[in-house]
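Helix-turn-helix transcriptional regulator (Streptomyces atroolivaceus), 234 aa
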Amino acid sequence: MSSSEDSAIEALVVLGDPVRRGLYRHVTGTPGEVGRDAAAEAAGISRSLAAFHLDKLVEAGLLEVCFRRLSGRSGPGAGRPSKMYRRAEGEHTVSVPPRSYDAVSRLLAEVVERAGLDGDLQAAARAAGESEGGAPDGEADPVEILRARGYEPFWDGDRLRLNNCPFHALADQFPALVCGMNLAGIEGLLAGLPDGQDWSAAMDPLPRGCCVSLAVAEDAQDAQDGTKEVTKEV
């Protein structure tokens, strides 16, 4: 077994603890960084216990640490920077027996890019998204569909931003290809939904998130206000 597989298994073992799993979900589902106090409050545990579990998640490579003064001040008297946590950039995948889907994905992306088939890929992604949005008895709320797909949506004012890129590794290597496919897929999804015409999607990348954000048309905004509040609370 390779060292990368060992690391992935160790990471899964760390997440076997329900408290750590809850803390991990809270941190990774929150835009920006999360401090120990906020994490402890979210998990309903003491600050010291939260710090212990958060640092275990860092050791496993699931979270990373940065330091920031929460007061916003600098210089003498500003106090010590607080230890903050955020999602680590690395990925952990375990397959038993081992599989190499990532290698095939990279190879296919290279072929599509070299052959100039970006338009065909976007057309296929748009058709697949529209088919999913139009599936009978399916979820009709774009926010919940994107959440189920792993995008981790959150409201930022009037825009719905996506905290996670499900295609992160490939998007790093083939940004134009993968981000174009991603936008086309989301546009197709909206086109297939009953109320999808009330939404629009555009390239609007986050520094550590997805390249796409969504907005609701002004005449449908009032109907979305309740949904936004529920999403924020979740």
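Residues 175-192 form the longest helix (18 residues). The chain has a mean pLDDT of 86. ok done for today
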